[in-house]
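Putative serine/threonine-protein kinase-like protein-like
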Amino acid sequence: MPNGSLYELLHSHSKPPNWTRRVRFALQIARGVHFLHSSNPPVIHRDIKSSNILIDGNFSARLGDFGLSLRGHVEDVVVKSTPPAGTLGYLDPAYLAPSDLSTKSDVFSFGILLLEIISGRNAIDVNYSPPSVVDWAVPLIKSGEYTEIYDPRLTSPEDDGTLRQLAVVAARCVRKTAAKRPAMAEVVEWLKLVYKRMSSPIWNNIGRRVGRVRESTRVVKYEPLDESMEIVKISRMGSRRNRKVSNVTTTELGSAVIGQKVKPVIRSKSIGSLGEIASEPFDLANNNNNQTVRRKGGLAVKMPTVRLSKSRSMGMIQSSTRLMHK
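Tokens:
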């Protein structure tokens, strides 16, 4: 591919992609995975990771490397008899035996990829503690410290509520219990809303004129309750920095340039093997599946929004807070 892989753009490129492009990549990948899962029979990729996302000349993301993929329903003999496979760091922890495989395993891998897109960190990075991106990011998301996981090489967008939404989607995808994870159809609809909001000209114009609408002392707190309910609380914001580990021996397989600093990175390799399956190529960028968004669970997110109103003599912009239910 002309522009290499998403892994190279995120970790090895001197100019990392901006937020709008990252959200667009995430949406295109989600559409591709949903295409596989909705096929008849369905296809489970089993190796979704940034190095398997190829970027074409139009900077559109395409899902590649179907070497570990399985075609068929989960009750099929071939699927049930194939041992678990995948890449460390992206591999579903609930996928311990052939009978555990489902489309939700791909959802978990996609959630790890989404955290990688948001943070710019590798799925596994032994330079940090904890080394796993999910063990590091999810506690910060639950405590409302969203800004701690944003890629420090980029500035926050004018409407940084979009990144908070993106982080919550990722946290849902990487739940330990497979049954609690959303289907890729739901993920696609959520990401469509995030991308539409981030790329909307009105948000950019408002941001330039009146600045970002934010609550400086309060943050949204995401706290799962049980299988069917989740709640968002408002609390005082703390701060938790990345804890760099200096005495850990690392295996340097490559280097990623971040600004003027070069840091060693490790690229995980897939575990397991299977012959490639025949699959028709598809374009992730041109999938225009418009479905009605279905809200599930009891997630309530309190976010700053902006509405426009006029007085009798002049236009004025007022900020308000709207309670959105998901």
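The radius of gyration is 20 Å.
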